[in-house]
Design brief:
This protein is mainly α. Helix content is 70%, strand content 0%.
Length: 206
């Protein structure tokens, strides 16, 4: 008969993942030990191994969880069946919000996925491809000729280039908020620098 999990088991797993993501983001995967993760969680090393067998399993769980949330975000927006421009603007807004709330996980994904085994890297990359494809499709819905020119994916990658590293310079308690910057990113995408609303509201088309 399977042994029942102790009360709080799932909560403890989440705490471990949060602490490990913070340590990996700050010190790098290679620069973090399981001892440090255990100490940050208030656990013994033996107790930590009860939840995760090694550091690579921790890394895979962090990356997989982040990608799964991004894929779920894409699916949720698709289910709203919005017109092309609002759909793309909502995707941008949701991505920026997700990165705001998962800065450690996002940094680990972008910097440490190379430490995973090849088959695990491929699993993560498959999720990333789904996310990029969803944005490229949304761009093609706005401008159908992008598909024929094969420019949809490069433009999608440029878009992610704008938002992927926002955590490096956007201060959580600064004057600019993630919500404001999501609007700015959308404005830049749709109209270039001349389209950016300086009061945080998209400029009206002339």
């Amino acid at each position: 008969m399977p042994r029942k999990r102790a009360a709080g088991y799932d909560n403890q797993r989440e705490t471990i993942i949060e602490q490990a993501a913070a340590l990996f983001a700050r010190n790098g995967f290679a620069g973090t030990s399981m001892n440090e993760v255990a100490l940050a969680c208030g656990l013994s090393k033996a107790s930590l191994y009860h939840y995760y067998t090694d550091k690579h399993q921790l890394l895979m769980t962090i990356c997989e969880g982040h990608i799964d949330r991004l894929c779920a975000l894409v699916d949720e927006v698709a289910q709203q069946d919005l017109p092309p421009e609002p759909r793309l603007r909502l995707l941008i807004q949701r991505f920026v919000e997700e990165y705001r709330d998962a800065q450690n996980e996002h940094r680990v994904l972008t910097e440490d996925v190379r430490f995973l085994a090849p088959e695990d890297q491929e699993s993560i990359l498959a999720g990333e491809r789904k996310v990029v494809r969803a944005v490229a499709d949304a761009m093609c819905a706005v401008r159908p000729e992008l598909d024929r020119s094969r420019m949809a994916k490069p433009l999608a990658m440029l878009l992610f280039g704008m938002i992927n590293w926002m955590f490096m310079w956007l201060k959580p308690d600064g004057e600019l908020t993630h919500e404001r910057m999501a609007v700015v990113v959308s404005d830049l995408l749709f109209g270039g620098i001349g389209a950016v609303g300086l009061d945080g509201v998209p400029r009206k088309k002339r």
